[in-house]
Each structure stands twice: as C-alpha cells, then as structure tokens.
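Risk register update: the risk of archive-format incompatibility is retired. Evidence:
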Amino acid sequence: MARYTEAKCRICRREGTKLFLKGDRCYTDKCAFDRRPYAPGDHGKMRKKPSNYALQLREKQKVRRMYGLLEGQFRRYFQEADRRKGVTGTNLLVLLESRIDNIVYRMGFAHSRAQARQLVRHGLFRLNGHKVNVPSVRLRPGDVIEVRERSKKNLVIAESLETVARRGVPAWLDVDPTAMRGTVKALPTREDLTFPMTEQLIVELYSK
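Archived output:
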C-alpha cells in the first residue's frame, strides 16, 4: 500500500517537529516526540549536516505528511499553485488549507486531519446544505459546513469540540459549537499559517 499505516509518532520524529497527527494526545506529556525528539532507528541520535537537497526533501515530506497526501496528489497541488498568479509557495499552502478535511479539523469537529478525512468520507457533514463525502473538496469564502442532524450526537465530534480550545480556531473561520456549524469567512493569508513551514524549499525542490 502507498499510504503509511505504521505508528504516526515515528513520522513526527523523522521530520524533527510535531505534526499533530494524533490530535489532542500531541498536546500532552504522552507525546512520543517530546519524550524522544530524535529520528527513529538505531542511528536516530547521530548528528549529520544535511545537504540542500535533503533540506528541500524533508520540508516537502513534512508538509505532505501533515496534510495526509500521497506524492501524486501533492505534486498536482504544486502544479496548480504554480499556474496561479502570486507566490507559488503561498498558493500551495492556501490550496492545502482550503480542503474540506483540513477545514473540518481546523473548526474543531475532529481531533486530527486523518480523523476529519474519515468523518467526511462517512458523510457526517453537509456543505451549503448538501451532503458531502469527498475530503478533497475545496471551500471558498462564504461556504458553510454543518454536522448532519443525525450525526450531532456523534461522540467523536462532541469530544473534539470540547478540546478544540487547546489549539484554537483560526481567525479566518467562524464556528458555532452549539449548532455544530462553521463558516469560511475568508481564505487564509500566509500570516494566518503559523505552523513553521518553509514553502520556498518545496518550490526549489520541484523546480529542479
């Protein structure tokens, strides 16, 4: 299988930063990266100076794994970002952030992007009044996401909404936790994306 199915904490350790792949657990003292902040394997503690190519590759892998995409999917997003006007790296991040599975996670309806992707696939949400089950659907300003009426008692969603305060909801989104509804107020700007990403390295990698 192309999709990674082993321990998610090994991914964070390999990339050298928290990717928050296990949701609320990443904010507790149970986080494996906090306990072992070095690469997995027998030689994980070895220090070696990476080449420019290695830095570019690791940055691409970090962002790709954070959003849970396969290599082909990620490359297509880059190609679309490159065709658009503006800064290619920023375009890429905005395209990734506007996916419905990411926005469901950002709004607090899921603990992680992987969980959000699963909930969307199972048809637990409505987009502008219509059922949606495709995680890659891209949202625009004014779009409304809401939990379907029969899914409002879902324990996963309820528990996630209780813990979302730990990571916060971005300013470009508006969420009504009581009604289990959220609205995209605007697409994010580069300043809204506070996770440490150097998208220029990704541009350099794909521009070779």
